[in-house]
Amino acid sequence: MSKVDIVKDYYGKQLGGSADLKTSACCDVSDLPEWLRPLLARVHSEVRERYYGCGMVVPPLIEGARVLDLGCGSGRDSFLLAQLVGPEGSVVGVDMTDEQLAVAEAHRDHHAEKFGYANVHFLKGYIERLGDLPIEPASFDVIVSNCVINLSEDKGAVLDGVRRLLKSGGEFYFSDVYADRRVPREVREDPVLYGECLGGALYWNDFRRLAQASGFADPRLVEDRPLSVNDPRLRSKTAGIGFHSATYRLFAIDALEDACEDFGQAVAYKGTIPHHPHAFTLDKHHRFETGRIFPVCGNSFRMLKETRFASHFDFVGDFGRHFGIFAGCGTDVPFDHEEKSVSAGCC
Ligand SMILES: C[S@@+](CC[C@H](N)C(=O)[O-])C[C@H]1O[C@@H](n2cnc3c(N)ncnc32)[C@H](O)[C@@H]1O
């Protein structure tokens, strides 16, 4: 069986619901914020029972947005996000597995009635071939995906397609499984480990390289948690490999650089994004408290100023003068600070 057929069989026929999973990889144990709970409760129980995500893909400030959900499965996240984008926004879910799409489709009218508007539709297709689908380039504000890209055999094609479909300033906000090293062949070829989202997991640093090659110069890690493999056979086969569920955000901004450069800029959060009155978290290293002046690198400045977040921040500075690498952002000045005595003959 090809990997695609293994995945279709696993999610279409082998699994009847979240309870059938053999590892914690595809089960989201992250705490859902209080304000989201009533929205999730409005999603039909048959949809929720076939949820196989590994994180929470609910980016802030998406009212009125056009959202694409890659590998939407039975549609749990699509129906959740549909309530957040509201009647002025829309959600398109894409999946390749008939049985998963059938559950999503069967409950579309139910949700439209419950929400009071119909703003979700589903397409059958492959996330590596998004160009084959009836969706326009540069037409989405936000693209999400929950525990799907690890299952793809051509992750670069997925990221290329995402970059083409995002509007300028849009973002890909997604949760997936990553490994702390390159996964060896015997783990990749095990059909259960592949179906359980471990066999196809990317080594995190290879993910960074792939994302950069697709035009996402500065991937930002939002949150992560280690995964446990509980089944004894699977645990023994994966011994020594650390698996993590992680949420990244990738901004479609052409001018982003591959390192954090210092232009002497700063931002201050106004506290105006709904449900985030006290602070706004851009990523694991940037939590902007309301009202506090926060020095930022050029990339962070652009991620706030050239996106839907712009009106919620005050901005200080521009790109007129460069002050070198931004200290503490992972890249250090390579040169020694102290002058060394040099022998005669050397310039
Ligand atoms: C782990 S499940 C996650 C489903 C959904 N995101 C959720 O959170 O419940 C993976 C889903 O991705 C779909 N999928 C995997 N590879 C795909 C591909 N190459 N193209 C389209 N869909 C794919 C599967 O059919 C399955 O529904």
In a nutshell, what does this entry contain?
With 347 residues, this protein is of the alpha/beta class. It has 12 helices and 13 strands.
Radius of gyration (Å): 22 Å
List the secondary-structure elements in sequence, H or E.
Answer: HHHEHEHHEEHEHHEHEHEEEEEHE
Largest sheet: 8 strands, mixed
Portion in beta strands: 15-25%
Uncertain ranges: none
Detailed description of the structure:
It is a single chain. With 347 residues, the chain is an alpha/beta fold. The protein folds into two domains: 3-251, 3-Layer(aba) Sandwich (Rossmann fold); 257-333, Ribosomal Protein L9, domain 1, CATH 3.40.5.100. Helix content is 27%, strand content 22%. It contains twelve helices and 13 strands. It has helices at residues 3-14, 37-41, 45-49, 76-85, 98-106, 108-115, 155-165, 185-188, 191-195, 204-213, 232-237, 298-305, and strands at residues 66-70, 90-95, 120-124, 140-146, 166-179, 202-203, 220-226, 243-251, 265-269, 279-283, 286-289, 293-296, 313-316. The strands form three sheets. Strands 1, 2, 3, 4, 5, 6, 7 and 8 form an eight-stranded mixed beta sheet that branches. The mean pLDDT is 94. Bound molecules: S-adenosylmethionine (SAM).
